[in-house]
Amino acid sequence: MFYSDVYDDFNLFITPDKFYICPKLSSKYLVVDRVSESLSLQSNVNDIPVATSSREFCGLLGSVRLLAGQYLIIATKRTYVGSIAGHAVWCLVSSELIPYNRSTLHLNAEQLDDNNSYLSMIKNVLDTPYLYFSYTYDLTHTMQRLHLMEPDFLNRSLFERADHRFVWNSNLIKQIFRPEIHNFCLPLLHGFMAINDFSINGYNFTWTVISRRSINRPGTRLFRRGLDNVGNVANFVETEQIVECQGDRASFVQIRGSIPLYWSQYPDLRYKPPPHLVDVAADEQQSACARHLDSLSVYYGRQVLLDLVDQRGSEGKLQKAYADTVQALGFPFVRYEPFDFHSECRHMRWDRLSILLDRISLEQDDMGFFLLLRDGSIPLLQDGVFRTNCVDCLDRTNVVQSMIARRCLGNILHKLSIIKSEESIEEFPSLERVFKEVWADNADLISLQYSGTGALKTDFTRTGKRTHVGLMRDGLNSLTRYYKNNFSDGFRQDAIDLFHGIAEIKSPLRIERGWKYITFPSVLLVAIAMFVACAILPSEYSTDSLLFILFWGVMVTATLTTILNHGPEFVDQPRLTVL
């Protein structure tokens, strides 16, 4: 076992006063005092008393403080995903929160109810698909970053050397971390991962796609938009595809993230609430955007900003503000490329996406990709990155990213001589099928994590064409998004903020709703019921029955209009943070 590796399998012995966390392959064990919450590293197993209970687990994820006190968080089940550079990668299947306190008698009934809500929040985040980890490999860094680091840096522990933008349980680990117990702390990556093996033209190779979700400005689709004061944007995801063949390794990185301006789009019961630019001076928008682009340049170098939003309507205001801001900044390492996805591809003309690919093909060739040969030499580095966005950075974004990735994968396979110069990915059915499925699955998971539903437009990613069945599926997903974004995302936003230490616990957690919250929905239900009854029950219609239908129809319309006019009062709002 190397210094930086993390212990994989443990026995947990629980006594009334302490937790004894014992790695199966080490003589050292961690003792957690349940009263003082102190931690100590010990090596004499004979000092472990008889436990009141014990269990096996596969990873220490950290600790969190709720109303009832501190909770230890452990990974209890995992499933094997595959290997990267010879290192096993796992997916978290289940976890458990174990309280330090032996009882909750110090809480009153309301506090106990709130504590259960907080437990549900933490579990909600841990159960959101998917969380990945490796005991021996740093999943948070791209392959290029890993191989350009100094040897001393690579000798540090996985948590200390990680790119903390992508350590999903960073806040939990910080509650217990000490340098001497680094082997106990397991970093988690949130996003998507697929590892597939192929054999083509006599070459065996592994193709991997990793999407890393950032912990900076985390949240749900309509409650987290734009950027914050330090330049972090919502829904920032770094996606890397890796090819490994007989000791040679290549990788290509893309990123996505919300439009880097101050803007919002809070739910208000409308199907598609219009986005609003926050009312700040132009120089404030420019400064915030500059901080974001500057920070990206440190990690990725030059950037091509692919903006896929509509150039008319409410999205058009965002597009113009974004374009004007980038132009005003005049950064030499940034180029802005607008492409009105919906306008260009209307009437299901998705073949017109080739227009965008043609515009950026020379830059993609110039950026290249990272290549590490089996002899340890690095003949190629990726110089720059495509930063893609639409409004949600989900559906349109994933379609374009998958097409860029397809082109790069072809270039990599040609470079490694896996396929001949005149051959393309489409000529190999197994690779073509898996490529489409993986990128569609990536779209679904990234969308599920941000919006609560699978992605739209994945029929194009899976089949290469837009279908009527796909349109119907998109309609169902859109309705599900509408419900979740309006009536359940407040809880999800609180859960994410609590998990990352952005919000503090409080009690009472319940908020008092105004009289409209119960009255108007009740009146609406009665009005709808009466309207339907008056419309279908009479065997024949008279003037009176028609007047009743008209009356209840007006009541339905008036009540629904009133509810929509007071939409934010009926939305499930976050309770722990002020928007």
UniProtKB/TrEMBL annotation:
It comes from Photinus pyralis (Common eastern firefly). One of its GO terms (biological process) is phosphatidylinositol dephosphorylation. Its EC number is 3.1.3.64. Pfam families: Syja_N. The lineage of its organism: Eukaryota, Metazoa, Ecdysozoa, Arthropoda, Hexapoda. GO terms for cellular component: endoplasmic reticulum. One of its GO terms (molecular function) is phosphatidylinositol-4-phosphate phosphatase activity. The keyword Ribonucleoprotein does not apply. It catalyses: a 1,2-diacyl-sn-glycero-3-phospho-(1D-myo-inositol-3-phosphate) + H2O = a 1,2-diacyl-sn-glycero-3-phospho-(1D-myo-inositol) + phosphate; a 1,2-diacyl-sn-glycero-3-phospho-(1D-myo-inositol 4-phosphate) + H2O = a 1,2-diacyl-sn-glycero-3-phospho-(1D-myo-inositol) + phosphate. The chain crosses the membrane at residues 517-539, 545-565. Residues 122-452 form the SAC domain. Keywords: Membrane, Transmembrane, Transmembrane helix. This is Phosphatidylinositol-3-phosphatase SAC1.
